[in-house]
Design a protein that fits this description.
- By secondary structure, this protein is mainly α.
- It has one domain.
- It is built from 4 helices and no strands.
- α2 runs antiparallel to α3.
- The longest helix has 30 residues.
- The radius of gyration is 18 Å and the shape is flat.
- The N and C termini lie far apart (about 50 Å).
- Keywords: Membrane, Transmembrane, Transmembrane helix.
- InterPro entries: Uncharacterised_YqhV (IPR020390).
- Pfam families: DUF2619.
Length: about 100
């Protein structure tokens, strides 16, 4: 079984979300290794600050892909509840 055939069994939306999450994990592991490499609290804080930008981008990217993937299957009321939930998460993160 070839690699392309193996990935053909996954739904494109799920595969896209998984790839973004794998990239996020790679970024997190790389950041941790850089922190160990520099062995400095100041540098570790700078690296950690950079990661604070990556997290929300990954979250919103995966949510957007997932919502686009299921938008045709949800009725308007359910879709509004999901969007309201996302809005509450954003409001909660602002404080």
């Amino acid at each position: 079984m070839g690699v392309t055939r193996m990935f053909a069994i996954f739904e494109k939306v799920v595969l896209g979300m998984a790839v973004i999450r794998l990239a996020s994990g790679f970024i997190e592991i790389t950041a941790a290794l850089l922190m160990l490499h520099f062995n400095s609290p100041e540098k570790a804080l700078m690296i950690n600050a950079g990661l604070s930008i990556v997290g929300p981008i990954i979250f919103f990217s995966t949510m957007a892909i997932g919502l686009l993937g299921i938008s045709s299957r949800l009725n308007m009321g359910s879709l509004l509840w999901v969007i309201a939930g996302l809005a509450l998460i954003v409001i909660g993160l602002k404080k």
